Amino acid sequence: MITTPTRPGHIYLYKRYERFWHWSQAALIVFMLITGFEIHGAYDNFGFKRAVELHTLTAWTLLTLWAFTIFWQFTTGEWRQYIPTYKKVGAMVHYYSIGIFTHAPHPFQKTTSSKHNPLQRLAYLALLSLVSPIIWGSGLFYLFFAYWKDFGIDQWLTLEGVALTHTAGAFMMLIFFIAHVYLTTTGHTPFAHIKTMITGWEEEEGHH
Question: What is the mean pLDDT of the chain?
Answer without folding.
Answer: 91
